[in-house]
Amino acid sequence: MSTRPLETAADPEGLRRIAIDPLSRVEGHGKVTLLLDDDNRVRQARLHIVEFRGFEKFIEGRPYWEVPVMVQRLCGICPVSHHLAASKALDRVVGGWPVPPAADRIRRLMHYGQIVQSHALHFFHLASPDLLFGFDAEVDRRNIVGVAAAFPDAARQGVMLRRFGQEVIRITSGKRIHGTGSIPGGMNRAVDPAERDALRAGLPQMLDWAQDAVTLARRLHENLPARYAGFADTPAAMLSLVGRDGAMELYDGVLRLREADGRIAIDGFDDQRYRELIAEAVKPWTYMKFPYRRSLGVDQGWYRVGPLARVQNCDFIPTPRAEEARQGFVAAHGGQPVHAVLATHWARMIELLHGVETVAELLDDPLILGGPLRTEGPRQCSGIGIIEAPRGTLIHEYEVGDDDLVTRCNLIVSTTHNNQAMNEAVRAVALRHLDGETITEGLLNHIEVAVRAYDPCLSCATHALGQMPLAVSLRAADGRLLDHVLRSPGGELLRDAPAHAAETAS
Amino acid sequence: MSAVDPTFDLDGQPVPLQPGDTILSAAARAGLDIPHLCWSDEVSGSASCRLCTVLADGRPVAACVTPAVAGQKVECRTASLATQRLRLLQMLFVEGNHFCPGCEKSGNCVLQVQAERAGMTALHFEALNPERPVDASHPDVLFEPNRCILCQLCVRASDEIDGKRVFAIGGHGIATRLLIDSPSGRLGDSALSVHDRAAHICPVGALLPKRVGFAVPIGRRRFDNEDTRG
Predict the structure, then answer these.
(1) What is the ipTM of this complex?
(2) Does domain B99-228 have CATH number 3.40.50.1450?
C-alpha cells in the first residue's frame, strides 16, 4: 500500500486538524497529526517528535571516559544499550578493542539481561492491554492494572521476567538502572559467584515463562480480529547486525540489509563503515532525523530495524528454544517476508526467549567470574560502536581530541532508524481505519497501536519524558474549534476542557 | 586516657584534647563526625566552606580553625545548624554545575555525601548554571571548574605539601575562582604533576587524574554503603 502522498497535503489550507498529543504507552514524547478534508478523507498524516535532541551537542567538550555513563541518561528503559554502544566506540579510541574475553562475556550478559527486561516491559506493560482487550476496549481497562486484574498470571510473569533482567544488569553494572560496569577498554567488575548462583536458581522458571510469552504473543497475533488482517502492513527493507555466520547477534556483528521482498542486499558489512551505507535527512516538521540508504536516496531508502527485522534478517538464532520459535514464525507466514507491524510483538517475544537462553549460557561461563577485565593499546582519534538495542540498531560515534575531550558525537538510535517506517504505519492505519470516520477514542488508539508496536523510545531520540494524557481537537475548515476532547491520565474523556497548548502547534 | 586528661563536650560526649587541637581535629581523632568539606588533616585549616560551623559555648565558630578548649560546651547537631548546613550545601550546588549522575567522582565525592547526610533532596535555590570551560590542557590532570567549590584544599596542598604554589583564589564574590599559576592560566602550562598531592586532594570532581573515570565499581567507592553496594 503506497502511503507516501500523505506526508504533506497538497493544499493544507482549510483542512481539519486532529492531534494525538502526546502518544501514550510509549517511552518519551511525540504526537500524531492528521489533516482531513470536508469529506473526512485523510490528506496528511505525520508522526512528530516534538522535543529537541541535545545529547550530541553537550557530549562535546566532555572527557571521553565520562561518556559511557553519561549517555545512559538518554534513556531509562534501555540505558545499557547506550552504555555499551558508547563503550564499544571508546574501546577503539583507547586501543582496547577487542576487550578481554571476560569483559566481553560480562558485557554480553549485561546486554542480554537488558533485552529481557526491556522486551518484557514493552510486551506486558505497554502493548498487551491493546492485544488482550482490543484496540477500542474501555480506556480504564487498557493498561497494566487492567491486565493484572483480568490476566494476573500473565501480568505477574511480565513483572518477574523484567525483574530477572534487571537483576542481571545489577550484578554486571552495579545498579539496575544507570550503572557503571562498562568502561573504555573493558569492564570495572566481574560477577560475584553468589549473585550468579542466585540468578541461576531462577532460570528454569524464567525459561518457561519466556516460552509462555512466545506462545501468548503468537496466539494473540493469530487470533486478531479479521478486520485487523494486514493492520499497518508496511513493506520495508530490514537492517540489523548479524553474526558473521548469519546468526542472530545483538552485541557485536556485521551489518546485513535485506530487501522487503526477502533478498539480501548487503551482507557482512563492517559496522565501522556504516556511514558509507547510511545517511540522515531532516524535515522541517519534526526534530527526529530520517536515516536512509545512501544508494537509494531519502525517498526510497528507508528501512526498518528492531525485532521484526532481526528475526527475519538472521539465518538462525543460536539458542534452541528461540530458534524453534523463529522457525515457527517463518513457517506460519509461509516463508514469506512479514511486514505486518503487529507481528513485531511475536518477534519481540522470540527475542526475549533468546535473551533468557543466552543469559543462562553466560551464567554457566566461568569467564564472567574474573580474569583480565581491561586492556589498552595505541590511541585512536575516533571510534564507532554499533549494537542491537531492544528497539533496533543503535549507532554511537565519537571523535576525541589529543586533550581527551570529545570533539564530535553522532548518535543514531533505533527509534530514529524507524522514523519513516513509523510514519508509514501511521498513514496506513489512517487510510484504512480513520478515513471518512467520526473521531472516537478507540479509533485514535488504532494509530497508537501501530506506533506502539515499534516500542519507540522517543526520549532516546529526543531526551524528554512527558505526561501521557491525550488531547484531540476538531476544527472546521475556517479554523473554528468544533470539538475538543481531553483524555485525562485517569482515562476520563473530558469534552469541555481547555484545548491543549500543543494543539495550536503544527 | 587518664582521668586528668582535658576534654571538651561535643553534643554531650566528652572529647579528649591534645595541645594544638582544633575542635574538628580533636573530634576527628575521637571518631566523631563534624560535617566539613574544606578540612584535611594533611594541610592547615582555612575555614572557607563553613560547613563545620558549631556553637562553642553558644558562639558560632568554624570548628576546623577554632582551638579546642578544655571544659568547653560544643554543639554540632542542632536543628538550626542542620538547616544552615543544608542551605550552605544547596548554595554550593546551585553556584556550580554538579551533575552527580554523570560525574566520575560520584560515590567518592565529599560534597555529594555531605548533601546526602544533610538530607538534601532538592536545590531549593535557582540554579545559576555558570558557563565555565573545562581545562584539559594538562596531559594527566583534568580541571573541571564547574565542580569547583573553592575549598582551597588544592591551594594548600600545592603550597604546603608539594612546595609549588600552583593554585590560588582570585576574584570577588560570585566571580571568585581558582587561579592557576602559569603563563596562560591553564593547567597544562603549570608546574603541576599528576604525582603532586594537589592533583588528588580535591574533595569533589574539579581536579582529577585523567583516564581513570569509572574504574572503581559501584560498591567499592569511598562512600558506598548498604544502599549503594551494587
Answers:
(1) 0.93
(2) no
